[in-house]
Amino acid sequence: xxxxxxxDDDVQLCGLLxxxxxxxxxxxxxxxxxxxxxxxxxxxEHSLVVLDLMLPGMTGLDVLRRLRAKSPVPVLILTARGxxxxxxxxxxxxxxxxxxxxxxxxxxxARIRAILRRTSIPANPASPLVVGDLRLDSRAREVWxxxxxxxxxxxxxxxxxxxxxxxxxxxxxxxxxxAVLGRKLAPFDRVIDVHVSNIRKKLGTSEHGPRIKxxxxxxxxxxxxxxxx
Length: 229
Fold this sequence. Notes:
It contains 8 helices and 14 strands.
């Protein structure tokens, strides 16, 4: 049974979400301030954290920043409509996805399930995937660039795995959103673009140039290269 931590200072909303999520089979824990939320998120007892950005004691962005320094636990952020800058910053810091308030509980549940499906270990994991100087192990959820282990969030790992399995092929933003986030691409949705940007920074460039190219009007392309000698 998946254990979900909700960090939000709206006590009434937390109560409603707890009731709804428990009816869907989740085990729920609630923290109503940022300090307590960070402490519980760092306990490694949860499959996912639902994190509001507007919190007393410590902002949601600060909670996320400190959490990401120590834990890869998936994080779904809640934002008020119009908080576009904080929303993008949250994704850059390491959130997996976001849901704007007010939201339909069914949408929140769908986003949670999509993230948990993505982060679950496959029953029959494939052999490590090697493309050029990158090696990806889907069971250990680890990636090496030559001999250096990369520190990727769960969504970055899945996104990179998607790119590597289709190296040399243009993937649209719609395809990537469905494959990685488990949902349809919404209008003005920049989530996948921010995650691609984060991965590009972590991969850096090689002597051949960027590893992931933006194809104007089409999507993104992971440039396949011969294996490093």
